[in-house]
Design goal:
The protein contains eight helices and seven strands; from the N terminus they run βαβαβαβαβαβααβα. Strands 3-2-1-4-5-6-7 form a seven-stranded parallel beta sheet, sandwiched between helices.
Length: 271
């Protein structure tokens, strides 16, 4: 794959789940670098706040309210951007959430929504925008994954599975794109300090996620994405030292099998 070494100041960046956390911080960070930002999420008031912060620093941003669990909303988003000549050069599939607890306690309505946001929306938006990137011979899709995709832990069965999907999906499409000038990457992030954990707590039958205690800053992800835009790779780990995480499953699986359930039981209503 032919990599570009520097970003283009005319690049348009579409970020999903941009109303808070990684999405909002990445939007603000990339806007400061001169990129044009399109923010997508469900909460209009939060999107407006992010846009105002960006514009306060002379950044270029606009927002679109969409429920990414809804296929019609995803299609309508594409139509709006196409009509406004704002088809993105860089798509950051960031929207997603987790639920922590015993899988048999997980309300199926939450399960369906998690699958729709964490996997279906990523696959669909990639399919929608990738042809335009190929036609322009310029583009980059960045999927925000997790080390949980390679290190499935107790309490996050469906979340881990959704991130494993992103790993496989990204790798396969990466191989599809060999020889083109379009890139696709997955960010395998560790625990990050966002409202992600608070959301997991508030969901029906949800509970505290132990990984919150070792979470790193959201700024580290924004900076990592910036580096990835300038120097594309198939996979990056944030923080970088988590590159060893897949080996934990390989060499310490039996220990994790024993310790993991103890952590889950401690945080569960079944304790």
């Amino acid at each position: 794959m032919k990599y570009k070494e520097k970003f283009n100041t005319n690049d348009i960046v579409l970020i999903t789940g941009a109303s808070s956390g990684i999405g909002a911080k990445t939007a603000e960070y990339l806007a400061l670098k001169g990129l044009k930002i399109l923010l997508v999420a469900r909460r209009e008031e939060k999107l407006l706040e992010v846009c105002e912060r960006i514009k306060k620093h002379q950044g270029d941003a606009r927002y679109y309210v969409a429920d990414l669990t809804n296929e019609n909303d995803r299609n309508n988003l594409f139509l709006k951007l196409n009509n406004q000549n704002l088809i993105p050069d860089i798509l950051i599939n960031n929207a997603g959430f987790a639920w922590y607890g015993y899988y048999y306690d997980m309300p199926w309505e939450i399960g369906k929504e998690l699958i729709a946001v964490n996997t279906e929306a990523v696959a669909h938006l990639t399919r929608i925008f990738l042809p335009s990137m190929l036609a322009k011979k310029h583009g980059h899709i960045i999927n925000i994954g997790s080390v949980a995709g390679k290190l499935p832990e107790q309490g996050i069965a469906l979340y881990s599975a959704s991130k494993a999907f992103l790993d496989a999906f990204t790798t396969s499409v990466y191989r599809d794109l060999r020889g083109s000038q379009v890139n696709i990457s997955v960010v395998r992030a560790g625990p990050i300090k966002t409202e992600f954990f608070e959301t997991a707590r508030k969901l029906d039958n949800g509970s505290d996620v132990p990984a919150e205690k070792i979470a790193t800053s959201v700024e580290s992800v924004a900076k990592g994405i910036w580096r990835l835009i300038n120097h594309p790779q198939k996979v990056v780990y944030i923080p970088y030292y988590l590159v060893i995480s897949p080996l934990l499953e390989v060499f310490f699986s039996k220990i994790i099998d024993f310790v993991g359930p103890l952590l889950l039981r401690k945080n569960s209503k079944h304790a």
